[in-house]
Amino acid sequence: MRMKKWVSGLVGLALSLALLAPPVEAAPLKVLGFWANDATAGLAGLYQYPHAITYFSPFWYSVNAYGGLINRVDPAILSAVEQHHIAITPLVNDATGTQAFLDNPLTRLRAARAIADMVKAGHFQGVDIDFEPPHTSLVHQLTGFMIDLHDFMPRGSVVTMAIVPHSGGAYDFAKLNPEVDQYVLMSYDQHDDGSYAGPVAATPWVQNIVTRMEKTVPPQKILLGVAAYGYIWPVGSTSATTVPYNAVTPEMNRYAKWDAADQETYATYQTSQGPVVAWWESLQGMNEKIQLAKQDHLAGIAIWHLGYANNSVYQLLLHQIGRQP
Predict the structure, then answer these.
(1) pLDDT tens digits for 295-313?
(2) What range does the record give for the signal peptide (predicted)?
(3) What is the pTM of this model?
(4) Taking a C-beta distance cutoff of 8 angstroms, is the pair 223, 32 a contact?
């Protein structure tokens, strides 16, 4: 009887301590902000709100056919971002479009070494690999490259890899996961130039591709791609024009409607060239994607791109990810 009372007392004490313990707060979402040369605005907003971004990923490097690096670093931007103590993980893509360098063990190894040396020499916090391979070819070569790259990278570097949602056959996640710290799921361009008008990234569509990826990748390795732009189509056409969020027109705002099913903003209106339909990721749509990332316990989000953002986007990020300005 005394033993039962003693055990019961311990259980009661444990329950009391659990109730008194402060709740465990989820880690703030990471935010990777891309930067590309087609920017319609500068980075004044980033410098005003540097804590809105975890990683700055500028499109500065490309791999050539011989495994060497093409360098497009902007010294002024590099200096300003470093002065604001923002971690830099440069984006590296394939300059040839064929990724033939992956098929040759020597050029593949040369590229891995060159990227790691670039990260070390620049004192960058990591790198973002954006090769976007074909659906099934080069899967083994891509895996081999990422293994080599991980081995060469400075200790503590963050290795990020961009993933095309519908190229599942290009990625051997079982072998990639130990080599990659985080994946950018490019969950945008559901509709774009070349398709008929529709949402850039309907939330149900995004949820479906996230759910599929979570079957092979831990959620804490996924950064959800978020568009900071939209498209305008002439009615009935598949030819679309990109509209950055910071360049949304007065007509788009005037006729804007919220699609509750797709959770994205659209507008249909008349222009001097005829009727058009626009779909774009408004602040409300961006917030829906942030909530999805929180709901699925993802690592964070990745904005394409900061040159399309304005101060309201940075303020949304600060508010939703729980960081101070």
Answers:
(1) 999 999 999 999 999 999 9
(2) 1-26
(3) 0.90
(4) yes
